[in-house]
Amino acid sequence: MNLVVALDGPSASGKSTIAHILAKRLGLVHVDTGAMYRAVTLLCFKRGVDPKDEKKACELLKDADIKLTIDDKVILNGEDVTKEIRNKYVSDNVSYIASYKTVRLFLVEQQRKLADNLSIVMDGRDIGTYVLPEADVKIYQVASVETRAQRRYKENQEKGISTSYEEVLENLKKRDYIDSHRDFAPLKPAKDSIILDTSNLTIEQVVDECERIIKEKVKERNENIG
Ligand code: DC
Questions:
Q1: Which of 110, 124, 113 is nearest to 6 (CA)?
Q2: pTM
Protein backbone atom coordinates (compact mmCIF):
# COMPACT_ATOMS: atom_id res chain seq x y z
CA MET A 1 0.00 0.00 0.00
CA ASN A 2 1.28 3.47 -0.87
CA LEU A 3 2.20 5.93 1.83
CA VAL A 4 1.45 9.60 1.22
CA VAL A 5 3.01 12.22 3.50
CA ALA A 6 2.06 15.92 3.18
CA LEU A 7 4.60 18.35 4.60
CA ASP A 8 3.48 21.99 4.64
CA GLY A 9 4.63 25.23 6.21
CA PRO A 10 5.83 28.76 5.45
CA SER A 11 8.84 29.70 3.33
CA ALA A 12 12.23 28.60 4.61
CA SER A 13 10.78 26.48 7.41
CA GLY A 14 13.12 23.71 6.21
CA LYS A 15 10.50 21.56 4.52
CA SER A 16 12.52 20.61 1.45
CA THR A 17 15.61 19.68 3.45
CA ILE A 18 13.55 17.58 5.85
CA ALA A 19 11.49 15.98 3.07
CA HIS A 20 14.67 15.10 1.17
CA ILE A 21 16.25 13.30 4.16
CA LEU A 22 12.97 11.65 5.18
CA ALA A 23 12.46 10.35 1.65
CA LYS A 24 15.91 8.74 1.69
CA ARG A 25 15.37 7.23 5.15
CA LEU A 26 11.91 5.84 4.49
CA GLY A 27 12.28 4.94 0.81
CA LEU A 28 9.79 7.56 -0.38
CA VAL A 29 9.88 9.78 -3.47
CA HIS A 30 10.31 13.47 -2.62
CA VAL A 31 8.15 15.94 -4.54
CA ASP A 32 9.10 19.60 -3.96
CA THR A 33 6.06 21.51 -5.20
CA GLY A 34 7.65 24.91 -4.52
CA ALA A 35 10.22 24.02 -7.18
CA MET A 36 7.38 23.74 -9.71
CA TYR A 37 6.09 27.28 -8.93
CA ARG A 38 9.67 28.48 -9.13
CA ALA A 39 10.13 26.87 -12.55
CA VAL A 40 7.08 28.74 -13.91
CA THR A 41 8.52 31.99 -12.48
CA LEU A 42 11.86 31.29 -14.14
CA LEU A 43 10.07 30.71 -17.43
CA CYS A 44 8.60 34.24 -17.13
CA PHE A 45 12.11 35.59 -16.70
CA LYS A 46 13.44 33.64 -19.66
CA ARG A 47 10.59 34.83 -21.90
CA GLY A 48 10.64 38.44 -20.69
CA VAL A 49 7.17 38.23 -19.14
CA ASP A 50 6.41 40.29 -16.02
CA PRO A 51 5.32 37.81 -13.29
CA LYS A 52 2.80 40.42 -12.09
CA ASP A 53 1.06 40.20 -15.50
CA GLU A 54 -1.31 37.31 -14.74
CA LYS A 55 -2.66 36.91 -18.26
CA LYS A 56 0.75 36.76 -19.95
CA ALA A 57 2.24 34.56 -17.23
CA CYS A 58 -0.62 32.07 -17.55
CA GLU A 59 -0.25 31.98 -21.33
CA LEU A 60 3.27 30.61 -20.81
CA LEU A 61 1.90 27.46 -19.19
CA LYS A 62 1.29 25.87 -22.57
CA ASP A 63 5.10 25.95 -23.04
CA ALA A 64 5.95 24.77 -19.52
CA ASP A 65 7.17 21.20 -19.36
CA ILE A 66 8.34 20.72 -15.77
CA LYS A 67 9.89 17.49 -14.55
CA LEU A 68 11.20 16.61 -11.11
CA THR A 69 13.74 13.80 -11.16
CA ILE A 70 14.20 11.13 -8.53
CA ASP A 71 17.47 12.81 -7.45
CA ASP A 72 15.70 16.17 -6.84
CA LYS A 73 16.69 17.89 -10.08
CA VAL A 74 14.27 20.29 -11.72
CA ILE A 75 14.04 20.14 -15.49
CA LEU A 76 12.29 22.92 -17.40
CA ASN A 77 11.72 22.26 -21.09
CA GLY A 78 14.63 19.81 -21.11
CA GLU A 79 17.03 22.14 -19.28
CA ASP A 80 18.37 21.48 -15.79
CA VAL A 81 17.31 24.59 -13.82
CA THR A 82 17.83 23.18 -10.30
CA LYS A 83 20.19 26.01 -9.32
CA GLU A 84 18.59 28.80 -11.36
CA ILE A 85 15.19 28.45 -9.68
CA ARG A 86 16.80 29.51 -6.37
CA ASN A 87 18.02 32.88 -7.68
CA LYS A 88 16.85 36.23 -6.27
CA TYR A 89 14.62 37.12 -9.22
CA VAL A 90 12.68 33.89 -8.77
CA SER A 91 12.48 34.19 -4.95
CA ASP A 92 11.23 37.78 -5.24
CA ASN A 93 8.50 36.97 -7.76
CA VAL A 94 7.34 33.41 -7.12
CA SER A 95 4.56 34.40 -4.72
CA TYR A 96 2.79 36.34 -7.50
CA ILE A 97 2.93 33.30 -9.77
CA ALA A 98 1.73 31.03 -6.96
CA SER A 99 -1.29 33.27 -6.36
CA TYR A 100 -2.75 32.67 -9.86
CA LYS A 101 -5.51 30.07 -9.86
CA THR A 102 -4.73 28.95 -13.43
CA VAL A 103 -1.11 28.25 -12.45
CA ARG A 104 -2.17 26.38 -9.33
CA LEU A 105 -4.69 24.19 -11.14
CA PHE A 106 -2.10 23.38 -13.82
CA LEU A 107 0.51 22.31 -11.26
CA VAL A 108 -1.87 20.65 -8.78
CA GLU A 109 -3.07 18.30 -11.52
CA GLN A 110 0.52 17.17 -12.07
CA GLN A 111 1.16 16.89 -8.33
CA ARG A 112 -1.90 14.68 -7.82
CA LYS A 113 -0.82 12.40 -10.69
CA LEU A 114 2.58 11.94 -9.05
CA ALA A 115 0.88 10.86 -5.84
CA ASP A 116 -1.33 8.35 -7.63
CA ASN A 117 1.11 5.50 -7.89
CA LEU A 118 3.96 6.34 -5.59
CA SER A 119 4.81 6.38 -1.91
CA ILE A 120 5.78 10.00 -1.51
CA VAL A 121 6.56 12.89 0.74
CA MET A 122 5.27 16.04 -0.94
CA ASP A 123 6.24 19.41 0.48
CA GLY A 124 4.51 22.75 -0.14
CA ARG A 125 1.87 25.08 1.28
CA ASP A 126 -1.44 23.48 0.37
CA ILE A 127 -0.63 19.77 0.18
CA GLY A 128 -2.62 18.73 3.26
CA THR A 129 -5.47 21.20 2.67
CA TYR A 130 -5.94 21.05 -1.09
CA VAL A 131 -3.60 18.88 -3.18
CA LEU A 132 -3.79 15.66 -1.18
CA PRO A 133 -6.51 16.05 1.47
CA GLU A 134 -6.56 12.26 1.92
CA ALA A 135 -2.83 12.06 2.73
CA ASP A 136 -1.98 9.42 5.34
CA VAL A 137 0.14 11.83 7.37
CA LYS A 138 0.02 15.64 7.45
CA ILE A 139 2.75 17.62 9.13
CA TYR A 140 2.77 21.43 9.29
CA GLN A 141 6.20 22.79 10.12
CA VAL A 142 6.55 26.21 11.72
CA ALA A 143 9.38 28.42 12.99
CA SER A 144 9.58 32.15 13.73
CA VAL A 145 10.27 34.38 10.73
CA GLU A 146 13.58 35.48 12.30
CA THR A 147 14.72 31.87 12.74
CA ARG A 148 13.78 31.08 9.16
CA ALA A 149 15.55 34.18 7.86
CA GLN A 150 18.67 33.26 9.80
CA ARG A 151 18.65 29.75 8.36
CA ARG A 152 18.05 30.95 4.79
CA TYR A 153 20.74 33.63 5.12
CA LYS A 154 23.28 31.03 6.27
CA GLU A 155 22.27 28.67 3.48
CA ASN A 156 22.67 31.48 0.91
CA GLN A 157 26.11 32.35 2.25
CA GLU A 158 27.20 28.73 1.93
CA LYS A 159 25.96 28.73 -1.66
CA GLY A 160 27.78 32.00 -2.40
CA ILE A 161 24.52 33.96 -2.81
CA SER A 162 25.17 37.49 -1.53
CA THR A 163 21.92 38.73 0.01
CA SER A 164 21.90 40.54 3.36
CA TYR A 165 20.05 39.14 6.38
CA GLU A 166 17.65 42.13 6.26
CA GLU A 167 16.81 41.44 2.60
CA VAL A 168 16.15 37.78 3.36
CA LEU A 169 13.94 38.72 6.31
CA GLU A 170 11.92 41.22 4.25
CA ASN A 171 11.51 38.72 1.41
CA LEU A 172 10.21 36.06 3.82
CA LYS A 173 7.77 38.46 5.50
CA LYS A 174 6.42 39.51 2.12
CA ARG A 175 6.06 35.91 0.94
CA ASP A 176 4.40 34.83 4.21
CA TYR A 177 1.85 37.60 3.73
CA ILE A 178 1.10 36.87 0.06
CA ASP A 179 1.05 33.08 0.57
CA SER A 180 -1.36 33.22 3.49
CA HIS A 181 -3.66 35.93 2.10
CA ARG A 182 -4.29 34.65 -1.43
CA ASP A 183 -7.89 33.65 -2.22
CA PHE A 184 -7.21 30.21 -3.63
CA ALA A 185 -5.61 27.47 -1.47
CA PRO A 186 -3.80 29.82 0.93
CA LEU A 187 -1.08 28.73 3.30
CA LYS A 188 -2.66 27.30 6.46
CA PRO A 189 -2.55 24.05 8.38
CA ALA A 190 -5.14 21.38 7.58
CA LYS A 191 -7.52 20.59 10.46
CA ASP A 192 -5.88 17.18 10.85
CA SER A 193 -2.26 18.40 10.56
CA ILE A 194 0.27 17.80 13.27
CA ILE A 195 1.97 21.13 14.02
CA LEU A 196 5.70 20.83 14.48
CA ASP A 197 7.59 23.87 15.80
CA THR A 198 11.17 23.51 14.58
CA SER A 199 12.52 26.80 16.00
CA ASN A 200 14.69 25.08 18.59
CA LEU A 201 15.33 21.80 16.81
CA THR A 202 18.23 20.68 14.64
CA ILE A 203 17.56 19.17 11.22
CA GLU A 204 18.32 15.74 12.64
CA GLN A 205 15.80 16.23 15.47
CA VAL A 206 13.08 17.40 13.05
CA VAL A 207 13.65 14.39 10.80
CA ASP A 208 13.53 12.04 13.81
CA GLU A 209 10.29 13.60 15.00
CA CYS A 210 8.70 13.38 11.53
CA GLU A 211 9.78 9.76 11.28
CA ARG A 212 8.22 9.03 14.66
CA ILE A 213 4.94 10.73 13.64
CA ILE A 214 4.84 8.87 10.32
CA LYS A 215 5.53 5.47 11.89
CA GLU A 216 2.84 6.04 14.53
CA LYS A 217 0.29 7.00 11.85
CA VAL A 218 1.18 4.00 9.72
CA LYS A 219 0.78 1.72 12.74
CA GLU A 220 -2.68 3.25 13.43
CA ARG A 221 -3.64 2.85 9.78
CA ASN A 222 -2.56 -0.79 9.72
CA GLU A 223 -4.44 -1.51 12.96
CA ASN A 224 -7.60 0.04 11.51
CA ILE A 225 -7.30 -2.02 8.33
CA GLY A 226 -6.44 -5.20 10.21
O1 DC B 1 8.98 26.29 -0.85
P2 DC B 1 9.48 27.39 -1.80
O3 DC B 1 10.07 28.57 -1.10
O4 DC B 1 10.40 26.85 -2.85
O5 DC B 1 8.16 27.88 -2.54
C6 DC B 1 8.20 28.90 -3.48
C7 DC B 1 6.89 29.66 -3.51
O8 DC B 1 5.86 28.85 -4.06
C9 DC B 1 6.38 30.18 -2.18
O10 DC B 1 6.39 31.58 -2.15
C11 DC B 1 4.98 29.68 -2.05
C12 DC B 1 4.67 28.96 -3.31
N13 DC B 1 4.13 27.63 -3.11
C14 DC B 1 2.77 27.50 -3.05
O15 DC B 1 2.05 28.49 -3.12
N16 DC B 1 2.23 26.25 -2.97
C17 DC B 1 2.99 25.17 -2.88
N18 DC B 1 2.41 23.97 -2.79
C19 DC B 1 4.40 25.30 -2.91
C20 DC B 1 4.94 26.55 -3.01
A1: 124
A2: 0.92
